[in-house]
Amino acid sequence: MNKQTAKVSPSPSPGPAVFLLPTPQEHAERQRGPQPAAEDEQDGGQGGGWGGGQGGGKGGWKGGVQAEDCVEEKREDSKSRCARCPLRAMCRAAWGLVLGCCVALAWAVGTHSAKQSLEQLHAPFFTIWFCSTWNLLLFPLYYLGHLLGAEQRQWPTACFRQCSGFLVEEDMTVRVLLKGAAPFSVLWSLSGYLYLLALCRISAGDASAILCCSQGFIFLLSWIGLNDRFMGVRIVAVILSITGIVMMAYADGFHSDSITGVALAVGSASTTALYKVLFRKRVGEVQPGTASVLLSCVGLCCCVLHSWVCVILYLTHVEYWPPIQYIPWDALCVMASLLLAFNVLVNLGSVLAYPSLISLGMLLSIPANSAVDFYVAAAPQLSQVRVAAAAIIGVGYLLLLLPGDWDDSVVHWIEGLWQGGWKEDSVVGEDGGADGGEIAKPKPKPAGIASLT
Known about the structure:
By secondary structure, the chain is mainly α. The chain is 73% helix and 0% strand. The chain has helices at 2-8, 24-32, 38-46, 53-83, 86-120, 124-132, 138-149, 156-163, 174-199, 204-211, 214-225, 232-250, 258-283, 288-304, 307-315, 329-348, 355-375, 384-400, 406-436, 447-452.
């Protein structure tokens, strides 16, 4: 009977969220183990003989299965209760705000370091290639978190195979990994290259504001290519984003050099949107493990396949490299480390916080970059047109962060609020009528609220 029960018991497979620690209820249930039900023990006893004969074996087997099902239901219950716990939600919200501020700070300081390095080293593709190779550290950092938080620890190769299923459908080799990650690495490098070219012509605040418009492009591409749900509020957000881009281009006149920088920033935002939509199409729901594997493979592709592009650009005199002792390695290393920290916070921070709050970091990077430009880089004061354009883009970005069922949630909240207040008024009226000997009549609801209910 014990052998049969051991065959039926499911073995827990570690999911992507390996950082979550088991709850005290789960520890207690594991120590108790599965306990047979009373009815099954009675049925097993009626069989007689050794272990109840056939009836005892059947009853004991059913009892073990039902007990384990009960344990699994208790575990799911404890996890759902823990997820609905207000304290846990408040902690995730607090972590989200902290990580969002860290994302904004990392992006602002990294962008300022990029502008400094471009002033001394006019080689934007070499700069983005150097920073992209640091992505190789993403999976080791994820695996370190796996060792610290997982219940069942795996070897690095087993963990990598589990997280790289979307890239490798056959035997895992370096050639297969490079082939699967090559499209993502091309889009990654192209997006960064266009962003650095834009920084040479416009300020960091303007470039960050235009990059926030990538969320609108993601919605359009997902609606067309992934058949996502159409939402009117997101169409309004896309229109606001395009309006902000046009105002950014108009700030210095359409015949100035900034129009080229705005066009390059729009190209970078579009390429970023295409990268994320392609990632969603290949993977589905983005998880920390898959994101870390993909970015590490992107770093490998940049290190192996994109090196010859740097050499070609140098030989054709498109980019110029000074002697190695005059290359600003300090600014390049600061930029690469901050970009790595940015990717870690954005892709692995969902374990601790809500992704929507982390996404606010990109919006907060607009005032952070503007402050760095004004106080550190001694840039001129922002014009009213640029401030209005950044505000319009920010409103569109916030509208794009709304969940898909936000309108239903608002209607249900208003409905519940009105019904709750109405019930309290009716109870107070009934009490007053009982004291005064009169029956309180309920007040009619307004027409607008009555139509909602």
